[in-house]
Design a protein that fits this description.
The protein has 292 residues and is mostly helical. It has one domain: MetI-like (MetI-like fold), CATH 1.10.3720.10. Helix content is 70%, strand content 0%. The two termini are 24 Å apart.
Length: 292
C-alpha cells in the first residue's frame, strides 16, 4: 500500500494558499515584483515626464524635489526613465525565459523519452556546447552578425536559457519514467509523446515555475549587463544598464544618477529571488507537511 497521505479534493489548493500567505519570503518578493510590474505597465500609457525630452537647465537636480528621483546630465527625469527601464528589463526577461521554457522543456522531455539513445546524446552534448559560452559571449556573437538591440539581446538570453530548462526537464522526467503511472500508460498503448505531455510535464511544472522565476531575475541582471556594454537596448529607449554606463563618470558630481538605477536592479533581482525561494518552499509538499 502506498505510504502517501490521502488528500481530500481542495486540500492541496488550500495548503498552497496557506503556505503562500505565511511565507515572508514569498510575500516580500511578490510585493516588490508587483511594484516593478505595475511601474512597467503604467509606463506604457503615462510617465511623469517625457523620457526623451532634454532640459539642460534642469540637469543634476537632486531627488525629492520637483523630480522625485532627480534628473541626469541631460535634464531627463530619472523616475520616468526607471519606469520605462523596468518595462524594458521585464519584457526582455519574460520573452527570453519564455523562449528557454518552450525550447528547453521540449528538448529535455524528448531527451528523457529517448534516454541513452542517439537523440538524448545529441541534445545533451549540444547543451554542453552552449554552456561552454557565457551569455555575454553569445550576445557578442549574435550582435556581431545582426547588430546590437533589444531583439538580439532577447535571442542571446533565450539561447542561454534553453539548455538550463532542457537539463532540468530531462533530470526531473527521468525520475518519473520508472513510476507506476507511467508504466501503466505505456501498457495502455500511449506513445512517448503523449506520456511526456499528459503525465510527465504536469508533474514537473513546479520545478519549472521555480526555475523560471530564478532565471527571470538573472535575465534582468543579464539585460542590464548587455545594455551596460552597449549590446542591449539602444538610445533613446531607456535601460537600467545603459543608465549606469552613462552615469559612471558622474558619481562625484551627482551620485544619485548612478545610485538610483543601481538600486532598481538590486531591489528587482532581490524581490524575484525572494519570490523564487518562497515558491520553492510553497510548491514542495514535503515542506508544507513539515510546516503543519
Amino acid at each position: 500500500m502506498s505510504d502517501l497521505p490521502l488528500v481530500r479534493a481542495g486540500d492541496g489548493d488550500r495548503g498552497v494558499w496557506r503556505a503562500a500567505s505565511s511565507s515572508r519570503s514569498f510575500v516580500a518578493g511578490f510585493v516588490v515584483t508587483l511594484v516593478f510590474l505595475a511601474a512597467a505597465l503604467v509606463s506604457l500609457v503615462w510617465t511623469p515626464y517625457e523620457v526623451t525630452a532634454l532640459s539642460i537647465p534642469d540637469k543634476f537636480k537632486p531627488p525629492f524635489g520637483e523630480h522625485l528621483f532627480g534628473t541626469d546630465q541631460f535634464g531627463r527625469d530619472i523616475f520616468s526613465m526607471v519606469m520605462v527601464g523596468a518595462r524594458t528589463s521585464i519584457a526582455v526577461s519574460v520573452v527570453a525565459v519564455g523562449i528557454g521554457v518552450l525550447a528547453g522543456v521540449a528538448l529535455g522531455l524528448a531527451a528523457a523519452a529517448n534516454r541513452r539513445g542517439l537523440l538524448d546524446e545529441l541534445i545533451m552534448r549540444s547543451n554542453d556546447l552552449v554552456f561552454a559560452f557565457p551569455v555575454l559571449v553569445i550576445a557578442i556573437l549574435i550582435t556581431a552578425v545582426f547588430g546590437p538591440g533589444v531583439i538580439n539581446a532577447i535571442v542571446a538570453l533565450g539561447v542561454y536559457n534553453t539548455p538550463v530548462f532542457a537539463r532540468l526537464a530531462r533530470g526531473a522526467a527521468l525520475s518519473l519514467w520508472s513510476r507506476e503511472f507511467v508504466l501503466a500508460a505505456q501498457v495502455a498503448g500511449k506513445g512517448k509523446f503523449l506520456i511526456s505531455v499528459e503525465h510527465i510535464l504536469p508533474n514537473i511544472l513546479n520545478l519549472l515555475v521555480v526555475q523560471g522565476t530564478i532565471l527571470f531575475s538573472l535575465g534582468i541582471l543579464a539585460e542590464a549587463g548587455l545594455s551596460y556594454v552597449g549590446l542591449g537596448a539602444q538610445p533613446p529607449l531607456p535601460s537600467w544598464g545603459r543608465m549606469l554606463a552613462e552615469a559612471q563618470t558622474l558619481t562625484a558630481i551627482a551620485p544619485h544618477v548612478a545610485l538610483i538605477p543601481g538600486l532598481a536592479i538590486v531591489i528587482a533581482v532581490l524581490g524575484l529571488n525572494l519570490m523564487g525561494d518562497g515558491l520553492r518552499d510553497i510548491l514542495d509538499p514535503r515542506v508544507r507537511r513539515a510546516g503543519r
